[in-house]
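Tip: read the tokens left to right.
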């Protein structure tokens, strides 16, 4: 065999090895995407929450439709109009930047309900009920609201009457804030603003993202993790509601923080994918029913001592962010099945 033939054979073998490696990596990635067959029961769904307004008061429901962008009321519970999780957001008039209870804790006192097939009812302490007609892109102004890290999110403005109501309630002024509505017609794109998350959390994609949620479509909290945290804190009352979850899981044999190891979750016919630990901020220190901040920064201060994220943000964690891989109806009391990492 000539030197040239040996060199050619070596090149072919090297190429084959590269192709084999790439094929193996592709197979491993596809394998990770396949919904598992084997499941382990860990508990049941104890609570189910929808937050119609980002940073607004929670709505507890016994069942919900799990869509790709988050929870939605079922037609059985609300026939004329179904509220979606975080489908409304308050934003600043001067720059279109979103506003939350981190800055305005009183947002947590706002309740949203269905008035009729075309209108929402919005209530807050000391304020008259505001009836907002569901906006559309024909009669109302389309805008881009700036969310975290400057991400621009398609929205429809809810009009001047809603702007006046929110400005008076939050700012005690006639102007300054407006209300945005997401009709679900356009999905968010985080590829330009959240690169460090996408690089670190390999399962996180645009398909994971909710309407106006901070990031993903769903947030799950383990009740036993909350119970463990409560035992570490004195003189402060906290609950799972401090963490504003959509799903709360509980069970007699459920261990604290075991949710960190859940790769896949199955509830009824719905299949969910764990895409990221849920990093925590000062929102957790605000009482979800009174809007009063905890003077000792609890439970955040205690979480910072033992539950820090290994990800790009140096923040404490509680709960897991989920992507909806198979839609359907979920109900309180449903068994929760998992496939671990």
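Filled-in amino acids:
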């Amino acid at each position: 065999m000539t030197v040239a033939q040996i060199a050619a054979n070596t090149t072919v073998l090297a190429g084959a090895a590269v192709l084999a490696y790439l094929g193996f990596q592709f197979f491993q990635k596809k394998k990770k995407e396949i919904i598992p067959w084997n499941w382990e029961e860990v508990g049941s769904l104890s609570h189910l929450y929808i937050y119609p307004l980002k940073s607004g008061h929670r709505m507890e429901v016994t069942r919900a439709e799990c869509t790709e962008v988050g929870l939605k009321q079922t037609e059985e519970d609300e026939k004329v109009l179904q509220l979606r999780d975080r489908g409304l957001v308050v934003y600043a008039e001067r720059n279109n930047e979103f506003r939350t209870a981190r800055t305005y804790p009183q947002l947590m006192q706002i309740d949203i309900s269905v008035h009729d097939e075309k209108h929402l009812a919005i209530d807050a302490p000391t304020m008259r009920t505001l009836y907002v007609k569901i906006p559309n892109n024909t009669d109302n102004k389309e805008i881009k609201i700036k969310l975290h890290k400057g991400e621009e999110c398609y929205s429809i403005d809810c009009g001047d009457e809603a702007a006046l109501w929110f400005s008076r309630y939050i700012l005690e002024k006639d102007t300054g804030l407006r209300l945005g509505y997401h009709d679900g017609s356009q999905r968010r794109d985080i590829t330009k603003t959240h690169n460090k998350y996408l690089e670190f959390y390999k399962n996180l994609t645009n398909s994971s993202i909710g309407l106006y949620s901070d990031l993903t479509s769903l947030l799950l909290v383990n009740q036993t993790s909350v119970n463990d945290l409560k035992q570490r804190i004195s003189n402060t009352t906290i609950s799972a509601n401090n963490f504003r979850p959509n799903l709360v899981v509980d069970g007699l044999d459920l261990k604290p923080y075991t949710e960190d190891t859940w790769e896949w979750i199955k509830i009824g016919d719905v299949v969910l994918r764990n895409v990221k630990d849920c990093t925590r901020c000062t929102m957790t220190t605000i009482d979800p029913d009174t809007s009063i901040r905890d003077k000792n920064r609890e439970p955040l201060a205690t979480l910072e001592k033992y539950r820090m994220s290994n990800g790009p943000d140096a923040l404490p964690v509680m709960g897991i962010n989920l992507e909806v891989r198979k839609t359907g109806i979920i109900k309180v009391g449903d068994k929760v099945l998992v496939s671990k990492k």
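The longest strand covers residues 40-50. The chain has a mean pLDDT of 92.
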